[in-house]
Design goal:
- The two termini are 33 Å apart.
- With 282 residues, the protein is α/β, with parallel strands linked by helices.
- It contains 11 helices and 14 strands.
């Protein structure tokens, strides 16, 4: 659905070198700190900024050959995008019908009622959650094949996030060939939604893993100085000095459970993996 190979973009104080793939029928997550390169990657994929080198293939076509008609197969939510606050939902309906040949007006109207979005109220008077719901609703209402979502749940409360994630799951269930690329700071969203996850740091990919593997095989080892000295470190990805000794990240939890029964081994959450991959030492 989407393949990025060594996409490079250079600025005065930042360089991006991004490679990732979103497979048909999969939800792929992109995580990283602010300024790591997530939004730059998204904008390059959408042709909003030019790249210095590399290739981008979307829905089987080179980005340079992508036509306005092809773009109708994309649903996009960017963190800094939105509609004019002086329009109402009723005002944007004819725009959407003209933009997208496959815009599903009846589905859109049904979801407006479901999410309690008033059609006659100016968008500037919507809450943060209502604006986020509207953006995602527009993205899924024209039978897109690929969704590209940059921080779609940022700033939302737990209930609003759960409602949006449910809508995205329904979008995937309707067609097994659909795919989603999503970035988020909220690890629980990614754990419950994504099939695989990429981690970007300082413009480069530092990790790619299936979500199930990350949650089942990754772990934190907490050891004192003596245990660390005797520890087999061939499966230690990162280590970090702590007051009690060392904290180590591994992707081979079972190996250490079987061979080091006396050390403390904790499940590695996505947040812990992010912290250790960025702040730990190789």
């Amino acid at each position: 659905m989407l393949k990025i190979e060594h996409l490079k973009k250079h600025y005065d104080n930042f360089s991006l070198d991004c490679s990732l793939e979103v497979r048909p029928g999969c939800v792929t997550g992109l995580i990283g700190q602010n300024g790591a390169g997530k939004s730059t990657s998204f904008k390059a994929v959408l042709g909003l900024i030019s790249s210095d080198s590399g290739s981008i293939t979307i829905l089987g076509k080179d980005l340079r050959e992508f036509t306005p008609k092809d773009r109708e197969n994309l649903g996009v939510v960017l963190s800094d995008s939105g509609f004019s606050g002086y329009l109402t939902v009723k005002d944007i309906l004819p725009i959407l019908k003209n933009l997208y040949k496959n815009f599903d007006a009846s589905f859109f109207a049904e979801q407006l009622r479901r999410f309690r979005l008033p059609p006659d109220k100016k968008i500037k008077d919507f809450s943060t959650g209502m604006k986020a719901k509207l953006k995602i609703l527009v993205a899924v209402s024209h039978h897109a094949k690929l969704l590209i979502l940059d921080e779609p749940t940022a700033g939302l409360d737990v209930i609003a996030r759960d409602e949006l994630l449910e809508l995205l799951r329904e979008f995937m269930e309707q067609d097994e060939e659909r795919s989603i690329l999503i970035s988020s700071h909220i690890s629980s969203d990614l754990e419950s939604l994504c099939d695989d996850i990429y981690m970007i740091h300082d413009g480069s990919m530092i990790l790619h893993e299936d979500t199930d593997v990350l949650l089942s095989d990754y772990a934190l080892l907490k050891v004192d100085e003596d245990q660390f000295a005797k520890l087999d470190k061939q499966f230690v990805l990162r280590s970090k000095k702590e007051s009690y000794g060392y904290r180590c990240l591994t992707d081979q939890k079972q190996y250490y459970m079987e061979n080091y029964p006396k050390i403390v081994i904790e499940r590695g959450t996505i947040d812990e993996v992010i912290t250790m991959m960025i702040r730990g030492q190789k």
